[in-house]
Write a structure and sequence with these properties.
The complex is a heterotrimer of chains A (334), B (631) and C (287). With 334 residues, chain A is an all-alpha fold. Chain A is built from 13 helices and no strands. Chain A has a domain of 190 residues: MetI-like fold, CATH 1.10.3720. Chain B has a domain of 291 residues: Dipeptide-binding Protein, domain 3, CATH 3.10.105.10. Chain B has a five-stranded mixed beta sheet with strand order 22-21-23-14-24. Chain C is an all-alpha fold and 287 residues long. Chain C has a single domain, classed as MetI-like (MetI-like fold). In chain C, helix 1 packs across helix 2 and helix 3 runs parallel beside helix 7. Classes of the chains: A mainly alpha (334), B alpha+beta (631), C mainly alpha (287). Chains A and B meet through helix 2, helix 3, helix 5, helix 7 and helix 8 of A and helix 1, helix 4, helix 6 and helix 16 of B. Chain B: Keywords: Signal, Transport. Chain B: InterPro entries: Peptide/Ni-bd, SBP_5, SBP_5_dom. Chain B: One of its GO terms (molecular function) is peptide transmembrane transporter activity. Chain B: Belongs to the bacterial solute-binding protein 5 family.
């Protein structure tokens, strides 16, 4: 038991190291960006109204003070860590003075919901079909299905989304193509709101599912087709064990281990295809928030979203590391 | 197999349920009483304070429908008809030396919470912003205002620190202006910079009904007491539009789809091809500024090739002229706007009152204009360019292009400079450049190459114009690279970190000949060295003594004096001589309207209001719309 | 080597099909060296012409021939994708195998670095690096950045295989009989790892090209350089799908699909050849 505690402790130390390095790197890159938030805001404020140039100079100084960009890089960095530890990413520059954490809190449920749902659906369908295709290698229907999945697989998220948008939002206007739910609804756990959210999330989720299927399918099919020729499976077949038992107990279970590793990592990988899919479908999640933050030169928002994603992935990796020795006892602790 | 069946079943089930959901596009609002407008994504959706930075929600209907100030200028109008007294009862009254401005306010205007609007609100607005640096209009008030006082409930007197005949423009809306704050709300607020003003108290005809905390939409409802507002007083009957919805509608493709599905009545901006698709596929249910090609609404801004005058190689007007004469404006018009551009040879947008004030009277001068190339003189102006572009688009648009050359000028602009590589070569030689192989060497012996900076997909038509001009320069011996600067575009222009760029440094009132809107900041007093941040608008970093004289005189001339237009012409002639930047065209916006539910949108035949959804001036359009089928 | 390929072509139909498709795309991409319309030039042809005998794939709204534009675009995109894939494979194999084999402190250090890179969200990092470098961000540099972000997931997978191999008997035999670490890794472990490498290379190529498309759609690459993503960028700028200029989008997608089908079939059949007994059985499995 004590070796397990030591193992977990070590993993936790590593988790801390990951977060430290990731956050530091993200902060440094963001701060080397030439986008000047004060200029960005000034442009926004003055580009359409008649402003006296002398007035602009005064406004510039006032904004620099307001946005808290004064002090050297190290002071800003220390400041940032202080805020991260308090889960407070400071005020958004482009939505001043609303706190970044509030913007993220508004957007996160949408992304998490969309991502978790579509990844789980993808994982289940991709692996089941992949395992079947790997085991029943000469089944024609599965081969056709495999070819279909393989053909869709290389199409980037953006194309898939665009094709779905055109097909089911334009030629046959069945699904909404913008937003997270119908406008002006009572937000809450009522049936019509949940229905509306599912209805609006259908096309973005379908884009993610279709784009993600292939990866699981290929991985699972090759794992299974390799295991099928293994001695213990052949012995089992010779010994008259039922094929469905062989499939589920001998083959699929063994192939699940590496796939589980991949799943946990995918759950943390917030910014895979979701950024571009949210952008395309105008979905109110963190991906869209991030793109807006980048376009508007919003340091604190980009840092906030990035930090949250670093935490999410780091936690997912920690969980796998802790769970892995339980699943595969031959992995030595330490 | 199971997967496919599952998918088909899911799609089938949702397809069956979809029409039920689609009937009620916005929960609880009758579609026939609702106007749906494309808005920007509000990052700061809970924020309705228009007076502090961070107004992410401003153009989501807040400034268009609930805020108000003293005067409006209709950028589409001209002369007296363009001017609208809003909260003010009359035009601004200045004393003789422009050190004092007196404003009379209308009586009988109320805030949406029932409080009366009075002169105290105006005084409070100015005083609060002076007291709180960092508020949006704090700096201009601090610089200009010595003191402000209400002499009675409906009269306010401003004492200015220095003569300024344009002080009233701070309260004059073309896009926005200093909005009036409700004293009865803000007087009790500890820090007006961090007050969200949520829900906002409205001074205009609409009030906030509901909004999305993710900033995707905001809904505004007609006030029950709409008559007690400056815009309501001018109306004979209640506006038919009961609800206005500002919603983000996704990328340009999604906007077109949403309008074709009748879920978006007013589009802010799409690419020309999207506009053509709407005109082709939905001609019966849409309308736009121009009834046929080129459809677009010209904003009173002037996309140009900005040239960094402070760079050695671009400091000579001859070089700048050479670059201008290497451009074939027909190809630029075709490539950027598919011919739907309103081209401009003068350094003022060819829109609104600029056409009668400047473009028409100056045609003869332009036609006679002689340019000394150093090896001879040429007359570079080609008045027939509009005609030629009309012929280029003729095969595609056929009958919708009028035969009348005068009408063609309204659609395609007046003339432009004739592409003339020979004259350009003469200009370069006389500027001390030497030919080498296919290219040129600068007087310093460096190869003459250019970088042309564009913003990118935020303004697709201008990015497209940039790539074509770069190609034309490259083909004529000046290798040019297009740089896509994205969100850093304006910052790099600001500090002079560019050689040439596509952007606008000239914007006008649209409905008034006065050019102070941009010209004020062109004074050489404001010029800074390269690397330092140049105050807005003179991003070309052009310095000229004659220009300074024009600006200085304009400061002391009354706003409505005929001298204003004369000074404008002096500026325009100087800009042709010097070519500090190369004007290209008006900023044409493709903004079609859906007529399924609403009619009576402004158009070139009836330009009663600006129609840009982000412009505060759109309020005059909203209250005039009629339900479809009522006529 | 040639004998192997010849045998595969003769006896393995999957390999033959994959080889043919990949070669087809390669030949098509190489054709751009003889293009009559260099990819940077605009408005040489009438815009918006549908596919016809004169313009096989039609023309774009920018007056370019889609056929020749696509040829150059496929070449450039493949060059980008392959650069990313090869660079990231080198890193992934080295880190994964060394980490899995050595274990202990070396493993922890390498995996700490690995996990740190995994935890960096790719798209925002690349966008930010682009902001910093602006037009100095050339495609080879972008490929290096992408490769630096794209190896981590696969090296973890490879490590997990290596980790299992380490406790296998033949490894112990090798160690006791005095084989060097290098030799054990290359001779004994690499054959088990290679199939994984082929699959992950597939996914990595897809990832790299998706990345190119994502960045281009947002306008954050050199948009003047013909590439699959760049073609889509310009098609979007002209609202090609809405305007019915489908050939501007359909042919780029088609070319990617063919390329990937070909590569996939190659990877599958090569996997069978390299590892005829499917020795992957023991990775994480029950003995």
């Amino acid at each position: 038991m004590s070796s397990l505690t030591a193992y977990i402790l070590k993993r936790f130390m590593q988790f801390v190291f990951v977060i430290f390095t990731g956050v530091t790197l993200a902060f440094l890159i963001t701060n080397l960006s030439p986008v000047d938030p004060v200029e960005q805001s000034l442009t926004q404020l003055t580009s359409f109204g008649a402003s006296d140039p002398r007035a602009v100079e005064m406004m510039r100084e006032a904004l620099a003070e307001l946005y808290g960009l004064q002090g050297n890089l190290f002071e800003q960095y220390l400041n940032f860590w202080g805020r991260v530890l308090r889960a407070d990413f400071g005020p958004s520059l482009s939505a001043f003075p609303t706190p970044v954490s509030k913007l993220i809190a508004n957007a996160a449920p949408w992304t998490v919901g969309l991502l978790v749902t579509s990844i789980l659906i993808t994982f289940v369908i991709g692996n089941v079909v992949g395992a079947l295709a790997g085991y029943f290698r000469h089944n024609r229907a599965l081969k056709v299905l495999g070819m279909a999945i393989m053909t869709i697989n290389p199409i980037p998220h953006y194309f898939l989304g665009l094709i779905l948008l055109i097909l089911l939002g334009y030629i046959f206007p069945i699904f909404p193509i913008s937003g997270g739910a119908r406008m002006n609804m009572d937000i809450g756990l009522n049936l019509s709101y949940i229905g509306s959210v599912l209805y609006h999330g259908f096309l973005p989720a379908l884009s993610l599912v279709l784009a993600g299927l292939g990866g699981w399918f290929i991985g699972m099919r090759s794992l299974v087709s390799n295991i099928v020729t293994d001695d213990h499976v052949i012995y089992a077949e010779l010994g008259g064990v039922r094929r469905s038992t062989i499939f589920s107990q001998y083959v699929a279970r063994n192939a699940m281990l590496p796939q589980m590793t991949g799943l946990a990592m995918q759950l943390g990988q917030i910014f895979g295809g979701t950024v571009i899919v949210e952008f395309l479908f105008n979905y109110p999640g963190m991906g869209r928030l991030l793109i807006q933050g980048i376009y508007r030169g919003d340091y604190s928002l980009v840092l906030g979203v990035t930090t949250i994603s670093i935490f999410a992935v780091a936690v997912a990796v920690l969980l796998i590391d802790i769970l892995y020795p339980l699943i595969d006892p031959r992995v030595k602790l330490g | 197999m199971r997967l496919r069946r599952l998918l088909l079943a899911t799609i089938g089930a949702l397809a069956w349920a979809a029409p039920v959901a689609a009937q009620d596009f916005i929960a609880g609002l009758p579609r026939e009483e609702t106007l749906i407008i494309q808005g920007p994504a509000a990052q700061n959706a809970d924020w309705f304070n228009l007076w502090a930075p961070g107004g992410g929600a401003n153009p989501n209907g807040n400034q268009q429908l609930s805020a108000d100030t003293l005067w409006f200028i209709n950028p589409e109008g001209s002369g007296d008809s363009a001017w609208q007294n809003a909260l003010a009862a009359s035009r601004p009254q200045y004393n003789d030396d422009f050190t004092q401005m007196t404003v009379e306010l209308k009586d009988g205007i109320f805030w949406s919470d029932g409080e009366p609007f009075t002169a105290d609100d105006l005084v409070f607005t100015v005083q609060t912003q002076i007291d709180n640096p960092g508020m949006n209009w704090s700096a201009p008030f601090t610089i200009n205002v010595e003191s402000v006082e209400a002499t009675d409930d409906h009269t306010v007197v401003f004492n200015l620190k220095a003569p300024n005949s344009r002080f009233h423009t701070l309260f004059t809306v073309r896009w926005n202006a200093a909005w009036i704050m409700p004293e009865h709300v803000f007087a009790d607020v500890e820090d007006p910079l961090s007050h969200t003003f949520n829900p906002p108290v409205s001074l205009s005809a609409y009030v906030l009904e509901n909004y999305d905390s993710n900033g995707q939409w905001a809904i505004w409802r007609l006030r029950d007491d709409w008559e007690r507002t400056s815009i309501g007083m001018t109306l004979d009957e209640a506006p038919a539009v009961k609800y206005v919805v500002y919603r983000t509608a996704g990328n340009p493709d999604a906007r077109v789809i949403e309008q074709l599905n009748h879920n978006l009545d007013v589009i802010n901006d799409i690419a020309p091809e999207g506009m053509f698709t709407i005109a082709r596929d939905a001609a019966d249910s849409t309308t736009q500024w121009l009834p046929g090609f080129p459809f677009a609404h010209p904003d009173p801004t002037l996309p140009s090739v900005l040239l960094n005058n402070q760079l050695d190689k671009l400091s000579d007007p001859k070089v700048r002229w050479a670059l201008a004469l290497l451009i074939d404006i027909r190809a630029v018009s075709m490539g950027s706007y598919r011919g739907a551009a309103n081209i401009a040879a003068l350094s003022v947008p060819p829109t609104g009152s600029a056409i009668p004030d400047y473009y028409e009277p100056m045609q003869d001068w332009l036609a006679d204009y002689e340019l000394d190339t150093g090896e001879g003189t040429v007359q570079p102006y080609n008045p027939d360019i509009a005609q030629q572009i009309a012929e280029l688009v003729g095969p595609q648009w056929g009958d919708s292009i009028p035969e009348d050359p005068e009408l063609r000028k309204e659609m395609f602009g007046f003339g432009w400079w004739q592409q003339d590589p020979e004259a350009a070569a003469q200009l370069l030689r006389s500027a001390g450049f030497t030919e080498q192989g296919d290219g040129w060497l600068t007087p310093d012996g460096e190869p003459f190459e250019m970088k042309l900076q564009v913003e990118g997909d935020n303004i697709p038509t201008l990015a497209r114009a940039g790539t074509i001009i770069a190609q034309q320069w490259s083909l004529n011996g000046i290798p040019t690279e297009v740089v896509v600067a994205g969100p850093t575009h304006t910052q790099r222009l600001d500090v002079g970190d560019y050689e040439a760029a596509i952007f606008w440094t000239v914007e006008t009132w649209g409905g008034h000949p006065d050019l102070s809107f941009f010209l004020e900041s062109y004074h050489s007093d404001f010029l800074v060295p390269l690397g330092e941040s140049q105050p807005p608008r003179n991003l070309n970093r052009w310095a000229n003594e004659q220009l300074d004289e024009i600006i200085e005189e304009n400061r002391t001339v009354p706003f409505d004096s005929p001298r204003v237009a004369e000074l404008g012409m002096e500026y325009l002639k100087l800009a042709v001589d010097e070519m500090p930047f190369i004007p290209l065209m008006a900023y044409n916006k493709f903004a079609p309207f859906d007529t399924t539910y609403w009619t009576g949108y402004p158009s070139i035949e009836d330009p009663y209001s600006a129609s840009g959804p982000f412009w505060s001036n759109i309020r005059y359009m909203v209250v005039e719309l009629e339900p479809a089928g009522s006529e | 080597m040639f004998k192997v390929i010849r045998d595969l072509l003769r006896y393995n139909t999957e390999f033959l099909a994959g080889f043919t498709l990949t070669l087809l795309v390669l030949v098509f991409a190489s054709a751009h060296f003889w293009t009559p319309y260099p990819g940077y030039n605009l408005y040489l042809l009438p815009p918006d012409m549908p596919p016809s005998t004169e313009y096989w794939f039609g023309t774009t709204s920018r007056g370019q021939d889609v056929l020749w534009q696509l040829s150059e675009a496929v070449w450039n995109t493949m060059a980008f994708g392959l650069t990313v894939t090869i660079l990231s494979r080198v890193i992934a194999i080295s880190v994964g195998m060394v980490s899995g084999y050595l274990g202990g402190r070396a493993d922890r250090i390498l995996m700490s670095i690995n996990d740190t890179f995994i935890a960096l969200p790719n798209i925002p990092i690349l966008l930010l690096v682009y902001f910093v470098l602006r037009e100095e961000m050339t495609w080879p540099l972008l490929a290096v950045c992408a490769a630096l972000l794209g190896w981590t997931y696969d090296s973890r997978l490879i490590r997990s295989v290596s980790l299992s191999l380490r406790s296998r008997e033949f490894t112990r035999h090798g160690v006791f009989s005095g084989m060097s670490t290098w030799r054990i890794l290359v001779r004994e472990h690499l054959p088990y790892v290679l199939p994984i490498v082929f699959f992950t290379a597939m996914n990595n190529l897809i990832w790299a090209i998706s990345l190119e498309v994502t960045l281009s759609v947002l306008g954050f690459t050199d948009i003047n350089r013909p590439s699959i993503g760049g073609m889509i960028y310009w098609a979007n700028q002209h609202q090609a799908i809405i305007s019915g200029i489908w050939w501007w989008i359909a042919f780029p997608i088609l070319s990617i699909v063919i390329l990937f089908l070909g590569l996939f079939m190659l990877a599958m059949s090569v996997n069978e050849y390299v590892d005829p007994r499917s020795r992957l059985d023991r990775m994480g499995g029950v003995a």
